[in-house]
Amino acid sequence: MSHPTPYPVRLADEITRQLGQLADYLSHLPPPQAAQVIARVLDPDTGVLGGVTHLVATGSVFAKDQAERGALPAEVWLALGRASNELGDITLDLDEHKDALQRVGAQPATTAAKPPAPAPLVVRRRR
Predict the structure, then answer these.
(1) Residue 83: pLDDT band by 50, 70, 90 thresholds?
(2) Can you tell me the distance from the alpha carbon of 35 to that of 40, in angstroms, rounded to the nearest whole number?
(3) Would you tell me which of 33, 47, 84, 119 could form a disulfide with 29, CB atoms 3.0–4.6 Å apart?
């Protein structure tokens, strides 16, 4: 007799499916709507990225407990902790740009008489 899939596992599968659906929609949205979606996804308090960061941090606490009991290798806990910290840093970096995203999201979908000047792209290295 097969065991039914637990609700949290089904929930994780459904969230993954919906994130894929959202990414598909995003690629077809006009720039103001796309900016609104991105700004909401990246919101550190109520957005998807903040939620994923919190989920990974919670997973790290679980992994630490399991590593202390010998059920998981310590490397699993360390990797989840590192991922949680890096996601937190990324969230803070992206939070700096929420005003720009909100500004683009507030613009009407119609094109302006004078298009904005393109900005040169610069690659920054993390140190």
Answers:
(1) very high
(2) 9
(3) 33
